[in-house]
Specification:
By secondary structure, the chain is of the alpha/beta class. 31% of the residues lie in helices and 25% in strands. The protein folds into two domains: 3-118 and 286-300, NAD(P)-binding Rossmann-like Domain (Rossmann fold); 119-274 and 309-328, Dihydrodipicolinate Reductase, domain 2 (2-Layer Sandwich).
Length: 334
């Protein structure tokens, strides 16, 4: 298979390395020259600086979109119109502008799209979904996700204020950048119908975007839900708690373990992380799945419509906070 990777920041480079690990060496790099990382690992790879030329010359099977959020569709739409399969990083974009063109291009081009919500490949969260499907703690009645992580620690090699996560023009802010819970909550509990939120730039980081968010979600059918996001917490903390009528499920990203208590067992049970598990295994499994999607062996586990729905939730969160009222979720195309 032949791939074009657009965006050579940390996630684009991770995808490049993982493609190589999985035996895929026919990779072309589409670059803008704005990366803040050294170019050492690109030795021997073809580089293009014009997207149209890259697509015409190399006729790739798939394109990996890993550039800043607000620039995703500039690459994604021409790629799908050219018939390429697509791995597009979350969130799909920073607004709904151009989303219909992406849908149409994917349909007419004939490719498949996978959205890069890598936590769908976390063994702990896969175990949580299985427990919910098995009704291990009965009907869920409330759920809380918490994710706080100090932004300057993410990419120590660059000025965090210049990163896409910190810039409004690049689609930054905690709501879009840390939007994974919107996706895995839908994966667990179904559709979100409305949201309420309070957002603020409350840290000492001096950002032009929100660095703290408190969010509540209402599902069509499901538990009361809340999410905390911030760019300030040290040490980093990402965890999930689900309270059911017959017990509790807890997952913590720090060790990957799932703990659950049920009235049936009257005690805590533990599902440990697989031996040797580390964060990159999620991305390896995601990329292997994408290779199978490109080969026609599997359907995407996180479709373009899943990604659009998570974006709609994120944008509704911003609207709810700005207008100080609950905001209904858009449902175009669903």
């Amino acid at each position: 298979m032949r791939f074009i990777i657009c965006g050579l920041g940390s996630i684009g480079r991770r995808h490049l390395r993982n493609l190589m690990v999985l035996g895929q060496h026919d990779v072309v790099l589409y670059r803008t020259g704005k990366s803040t990382l050294p170019d050492d690992e690109f030795s021997g790879l073809q580089v293009e600086y014009d997207l149209t030329t890259a697509l015409d010359r190399w006729q790739p099977d798939a394109v990996v979109v890993a550039n800043p959020t607000s620039m995703h569709l500039e690459v994604a739409i021409p790629a799908v119109e050219a018939g390429c399969h697509l791995l597009i990083e979350k969130p799909v974009s920073h607004s709904m502008e151009g989303i219909d063109n992406l849908r149409t291009g994917l349909k007419t081009g004939g490719g498949r799209a996978l959205v890069g919500f890598q936590f769908r490949f976390h063994p702990g969260l896969i175990a949580v979904k299985r427990l919910l499907e098995d009704e291990a703690v009965g009907r869920p009645i409330s759920v809380r996700a918490h994710w706080g992580e100090y932004l300057p620690d993410w990419h120590p090699w660059e000025d965090y204020r210049l990163s896409y996560s910190a810039r409004a023009d690049l689609g930054g802010g905690v709501v879009l950048t840390l939007c994974h819970p919107f996706d895995y909550f839908r994966w667990f509990f179904g559709e979100v119908v409305d949201v309420a939120a309070v957002l603020g730039s409350l840290s000492d980081l001096g950002l032009e975007v929100e660095d703290t968010a408190e969010i509540s979600l209402t599902f069509e059918e499901g538990p009361l839900a809340s999410i905390h996001l911030d760019y300030n917490q040290r040490p980093a903390s990402h965890w999930l708690e689900i309270i059911g009528v017959q017990g509790t499920i807890r997952w913590d990203n720090s060790d990957g373990e799932v703990h659950w208590w049920s009235t049936h067992t009257n005690g805590w049970q533990t599902i440990p992380a697989p031996p040797g598990f580390d964060r990159n295994i999620m991305f390896i499994n995601e990329m292997q799945h994408f290779l199978n999607v490109v080969a026609g062996k599997e359907e995407p586990v996180c479709t373009l419509e899943d990604g659009i729905r998570a974006l709609e939730i994120a944008l509704a969160v911003k609207q709810a906070a700005m207008e100080n009222r609950r905001s209904l979720i858009r449902s175009e195309g669903l």
